[in-house]
Amino acid sequence: VVIDLENGDLRAIASAPAFDPNLFVRGISVPDWNALNADKYRPLAAKAVQGTYPPGSTFKMVTVMAAMEAGVIAPDETVYCPGYTDVFNIRFHCWKSGGHGNINLHESLKQSCDCYYYEISQRVGIDKMAEMARKLGLGVRHDLPLSAVAEGLAPDKEWKSRVRDEEWRIGDTVNASIGQGYVLTSPLQLAVMTARIATGREVTPRLIRLIDGVTQPSGLGESLGINENTLRRVRASMNDVCNHRRGTAYRSRIIDDAHKMAGKTGTSQVRRITPEERAAGVTRNEDLPWERRDHALFVGFAPYDNPRYAVSVVVEHGGGGSAAAAPIARDILLQAQYGGPPPLEAYPAEVRDRIAEQQSRIEARIPPGAKGRSRV
User: What's the pTM?
Assistant: First the structure.
């Protein structure tokens, strides 16, 4: 999903794999219908707006902004990460088994340390985290003329009591702090969240610009009322995610200074890793059946100094967000900013040959009448 930050316009909503709509024109055959229905990759679903996924580490901005706005964490305060956090008799692991050591807000987002969020979430509590999530557009059904737009879930204590007839547990909060547990978001919502962080405004997605020649209300929105210092620090951390050597998306950076992106990687589990498996060595994604592999996510905006576009990418069961989702987001943001194929000089030198081949394949598939137009 790509959002124009000047007006909330949805510049792209894409879901893959797709299907041939011509099959339905005169009535789809039983074999064709059965093939589409049985496909495990769900081509009939508009996943960008209907699908909901654990947001993984892309949710960390929500947690840290809730904590900063509540005044329970100072930006330069450090939390010690030994590679895990014990909550009562349950051990919650950081993705880096050896730990990050003492780490502050900026480094926690840049390096995506989990233990930092385990700690600060217990201070701020789930209700304030859920409140911030909804302020940023998560757990909210956005009013668009599309079918089955997902509401997602920004859970809180009241929700669990009402829906599950259970008390909220501290472990639920710890899980939610890194976008796991009950939290569910759609790619559309993640793009809205990113747009609001980038602008500090209540950007609302707009699909239709004109009706009978009448311009529809802009989606630019009013101020969110979030402290500018909070937003500035989070944006700076997202910038280093992509542009610092220790950032998780550094390999997918944009070289062109005028078009640099800021963002956040995410990797969300869809299965439980038992203590026995962890002790023996966690099974690699590529060694698991496709449907048990992690989801890969990335959210970002560009240019960093004057944001114009926000993007979210979810690769179902794609593995790591830095490897699978971030390169796609970079290519999309470059295409959006240039209004067409970007120059190879905008990419890191080590990927330019591959990008040149990719651009050549794309160009070969574009109909002649579409060439010269923006293909965002």
Answer: 0.94
C-alpha–C-alpha distance, residues 203 and 5, integer Å: 7
- Determine the Cα–Cα distance for residues 313 and 121; give it in Å rounded to an integer: 25
- The answer to whether the Cα torsion of 243, 248, 251, 253 is positive or negative is negative
Query: Per residue in 123-160, pLDDT tens?
Result: 999 999 999 999 999 999 999 999 899 999 999 999 99
| Residue 96, token pair as written in the block | 């880096």
Tens digit of each residue's pLDDT (9 = 90 or more) over 217-269: 999 999 999 999 999 999 999 999 999 999 999 999 999 999 999 999 999 99
Residue 11 phi, psi dihedral angles, 5° rounding: -85, -20
Bridge partners of 153? 184
Catalytic residue selected from 15, 29, 57, 312: 57
Query: What Å distances lie between residue 306 and 5, 136, 259, 260, 319, CA to CA?
Result: 10, 20, 9, 10, 31
Examine the residue annotation and report whether 312 is marked as an active-site residue of this protein: no
